[in-house]
C-alpha cells in the first residue's frame, strides 16, 4: 500500500506492507487525513512522544471505513464510516484502537470528518474536563486560529461561557475569530493584549486560559488570569521554554495544568473519546461544532500540503485525500 514515510532522505510516498488488526485494533481504509502541527516536526525527523524517526508512517488524524476488525474490537462492523486519531494516518490503510474513534455522522463527507477527531478530543478535555469551564465564565484561547483553537472557542461557547477571547498574531485570521465564537480577538504579540483582557473582564482577568503558545506569553497569561483561575497548557506553538513569574503564580493562586496525549495510556485516551461522545456529540452531529477546511490536497501532493501549512497563512484545517 502507499504511505507517507519518514526515511533517511526525508519523508516520501513509499510502498509498505498493509497492517493487520490484532486485539482491539480496527483496520481502516483511509479516505482523508487532517494535517496537524505535530506532523510538521515528525516530517523533519523529530519525535512526537514515542513516535517518530526513520521508517515511521506519518500522520495522526483520519476518516475512512472499517476494512477489518481485530478479534476483540467492539461496537463496529466492516463498512462503517469512522473517524479517529492515532499513528500512521497518512496511508491507504491504518490501524486504530476501537476506543479511539468516532462513527462519522451521515451528514459529513470524509474530508469534513477528518478535520475533527484531534480537535474534539484535545479541546473537550482541555476546556471541559481539565479546565472545568462553567456557564457565565470568561475564557481565553491562546493560538485560537489553529484548528484546535477554533474548536476550543466553539466548545467554550457551547458550554455557556459568557466571554470568549481568542488570540492570533495574524490580522486576517484575527478578524475571522468571531465567526467561531470569539467575543474579542487580541494580538498576543502586542504587549497591550493583557490590558484588553483586563478591561473586558472589569479588571479581574479570565477564569480559564487554554494555552497553545506558552513560552513567551507565560507571564502575561498569569497577569490575565483572575485570582483562583486556571491555565491549561496544551501545546508549545510559541516555544518550549520561557521566563515564569512564580510569585505572580502564587499570588493569584492559579491552577496551572499541563496536558498532552503523548504520555496518556490507552485507557485514558479511550475515556477522553467517551467523554466527547457523552457530552457534545449531539452538537457534532448537528454541525454546531465544525471546522473550516482551508484547502484539500490529493495524496500525491502531500508535500505541497505541508508547504501550505508551513507558510502559516491558513485558517482551519488542511486535508489530504487518499
From TrEMBL:
SUPFAM superfamilies: GroES-like, NAD(P)-binding Rossmann-fold domains. The lineage of its organism: Bacteria, Pseudomonadati, Pseudomonadota, Alphaproteobacteria, Hyphomicrobiales. It holds the Pfam family ADH_N. It comes from Bradyrhizobium canariense. Transmembrane segments: none annotated. The keyword NADP applies. This is Quinone oxidoreductase. The keyword NADP applies. Keywords: NADP. Residues 10-320 form the Enoyl reductase (ER) domain.
Amino acid at each position: 500500500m502507499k504511505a507517507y514515510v519518514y526515511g533517511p532522505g526525508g519523508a516520501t510516498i513509499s510502498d509498505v506492507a498493509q497492517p493487520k488488526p490484532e486485539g482491539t485494533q480496527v483496520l481502516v481504509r483511509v479516505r482523508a487525513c487532517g494535517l496537524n502541527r505535530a506532523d510538521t516536526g515528525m516530517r523533519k525527523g523529530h519525535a512526537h512522544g514515542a513516535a517518530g524517526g526513520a521508517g515511521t508512517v506519518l500522520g495522526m488524524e483520519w476518516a475512512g471505513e472499517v476494512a477489518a476488525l481485530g478479534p476483540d474490537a467492539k461496537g463496529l462492523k466492516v463498512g462503517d464510516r469512522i473517524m479517529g486519531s492515532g499513528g500512521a494516518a497518512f496511508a491507504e490503510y491504518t490501524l486504530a484502537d476501537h476506543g479511539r474513534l468516532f462513527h462519522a455522522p451521515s451528514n459529513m463527507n470524509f474530508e469534513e470528518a477528518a478535520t475533527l477527531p484531534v480537535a474534539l478530543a484535545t479541546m473537550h478535555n482541555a476546556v471541559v474536563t481539565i479546565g472545568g469551564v462553567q456557564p457565565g465564565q470568561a475564557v481565553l484561547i491562546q493560538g485560537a486560529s489553529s484548528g484546535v483553537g477554533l474548536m476550543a472557542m466553539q466548545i467554550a461557547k457551547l458550554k455557556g461561557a459568557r466571554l470568549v477571547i481568542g488570540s492570533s498574531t495574524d490580522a486576517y485570521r484575527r478578524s475571522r475569530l468571531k465567526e467561531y465564537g470569539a467575543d474579542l480577538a487580541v494580538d498576543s504579540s502586542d504587549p497591550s493584549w493583557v490590558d484588553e483582557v483586563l478591561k473586558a473582564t472589569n479588571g479581574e482577568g479570565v477564569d480559564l486560559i487554554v494555552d497553545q503558545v506558552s513560552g513567551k506569553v507565560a507571564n502575561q497569561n498569569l497577569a490575565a488570569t483572575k485570582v483562583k483561575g486556571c491555565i491549561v497548557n496544551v501545546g508549545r506553538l510559541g516555544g518550549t521554554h520561557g521566563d515564569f513569574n512564580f510569585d505572580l503564580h502564587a499570588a493569584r493562586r492559579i491552577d496551572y495544568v499541563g496536558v498532552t496525549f503523548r504520555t496518556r495510556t490507552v485507557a485514558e485516551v479511550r475515556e477522553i473519546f467517551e467523554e466527547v461522545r457523552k457530552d457534545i456529540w449531539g452538537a457534532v452531529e448537528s454541525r454546531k461544532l465544525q471546522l473550516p477546511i482551508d484547502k484539500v490536497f490529493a495524496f500525491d501532493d502531500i508535500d505541497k500540503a505541508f508547504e501550505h501549512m508551513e507558510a502559516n497563512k491558513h485558517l482551519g484545517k488542511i486535508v489530504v485525500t487518499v
